[in-house]
Amino acid sequence: MSILSSLGRIATEFSAARARYQTERAIRSLPIELQKDIGWPQASDTKTGTRNGIGSWAGAK
Predict the structure, then answer these.
(1) Contact by Cβ (8 Å): 43, 32
(2) What are the helix (H) ranges across the chain?
């Protein structure tokens, strides 16, 4: 595996993680009632302040 392919893979993973984070942030900014309507699974977690990880950028796949 060359350095360029490794950099490309890392950039792709970073881009995907960033898109997931932005989507999660946009959904969490909606009112709780709307989150429940669309079936957002962590709608109840916003009251407790807990949050699940957003993806593979930190190495967890």
Answers:
(1) yes
(2) 3-28, 32-37, 45-48
